[in-house]
Design goal:
With 324 residues, this protein is an alpha/beta fold. 30% of the residues lie in helices and 23% in strands. The C terminus is likely disordered. It binds adenosine-5'-diphosphate.
Length: 324
């Protein structure tokens, strides 16, 4: 897992808001991280912290304001629109609401085949075989392919969304809250399909979720996002056992106990997530932070190495080395 496949460098997405559109709403604010080949990289944080904007900016479904998105050595942000369209073969997205992203008037076969037609891949017969192959990979039968999306349950619709995303053989999939709309009993089935795709086809995932439990179950590495910034990145067990950022600790403390005898100290976060159009000064987490110091009101912490596998952005741990 040592080859980087995707490097996000200083990615920003600012929206112009307010009177005369003069204020910047910093939805994604200088985010950098590296995803290695075959990895499942989770992005977690409360609603509104910029996860979805970041996912879409990586794919340029939303144009980033600044930054680089290096896929296999090539900066996607520099591509013109035709080149970018071509690249979407290699980097695909799965959305939370599969129904909204599936054309209700198309039969499932056509829905899955469509990207192959758009990218001019294969003959009609080759496409037919490929559609049947990916349908099987996600647990759909040939019979399902002749039906319309409304005839399916939420979990099955997400299978269709996944089949459509993998039909062009992508290297990377961004999964944006892919199981959040599903019943808990169905969530693990869909997660297992994606895990199989990761293990058997080597597809790399960026997995966006507000749900730490799901992220823990599914991801190898986790980035915690707060108000447009990544505040902590670590391998998942390191993050769960040795979280450093007070925000991560608070999120973890809100999880149900995994064992009845486990002693948990719950940190209740003060107030709501502030608006990214008028963020607090210094460390943007300081007004809600149980460990805030005077300096947190004025100094902006940098994402720094806590150890080689663990980065944190907090003045409590700030080291000399700054991670670029
Ligand atoms: P998340 O996916 O973590 O819930 P989002 O990426 O959807 O967060 O949103 C991050 C912030 O950007 C929010 O404050 C949201 O209101 C704001 N935002 C998202 N899209 C727009 C837009 N088109 N114009 C202005 N603000 C936006």
């Amino acid at each position: 897992m040592s080859t980087p496949i995707l490097e996000i460098r200083n990615l920003k997405k600012y929206y112009k808001v307010g009177p005369n559109k003069k204020n910047d709403l910093k939805a994604v604010d200088d985010v950098s991280f590296t995803v290695h080949k075959g990895e499942i990289f989770g992005i977690v944080g409360e609603s509104g912290c910029g996860k979805s904007t970041m996912g879409k900016s990586i794919l340029r479904l939303i144009e980033p304001t600044e930054g680089e998105v290096i896929l296999n050595g090539e900066d996607l942000v520099k591509l013109d629109s035709a080149e970018m369209r071509e690249k979407r073969k290699d980097i695909q997205i799965i959305f939370q609401d599969p129904f909204a992203s599936l054309n209700p008037r198309m039969k499932v076969f056509k829905i899955i085949e469509e990207p192959l037609i758009n990218f001019k891949i294969g003959t009609k017969e080759e496409r037919r075989k490929r559609v049947i192959e990916v349908a099987k990979q996600v647990g759909l039968t040939e019979n399902h392919l002749q039906r319309f999306p409304h005839e399916f349950s939420g979990g099955q619709r997400q299978r269709i969304g996944i089949a459509r995303a993998i039909v062009t053989n992508p290297k990377v999939i961004i999964a944006d809250e892919p199981v959040s709309a599903l019943d808990v009993s169905i969530q693990s089935q869909v997660l297992n399909i994606m895990k199989d795709l990761n293990e058997n086809l080597g597809i790399t995932f960026i997995f966006i979720s507000h749900d730490l439990n799901v992220v823990h179950h599914f991801c190898d590495k986790i980035g915690v996002m707060y108000l447009g910034k990544l505040v902590e990145i670590a391998e998942k067990n390191e993050l769960f056992n040795n979280a450093k950022h007070p925000y991560t600790k608070a999120l973890l403390s809100a999880l149900p106990k995994s064992h009845p005898k486990e002693v948990k100290q719950r940190t209740v976060l003060k107030g709501d997530v502030p608006s990214p159009s008028n963020p607090p000064t210094g460390c943007t987490f300081h007004p809600r932070c149980p460990n805030a110091m005077e300096s947190c009101k004025t100094s902006v912490p940098k994402l720094s190495n806590y150890n080689t596998e663990h980065k944190v952005s907090c003045l409590l741990y700030e080291t000399v080395e700054v991670v670029k």
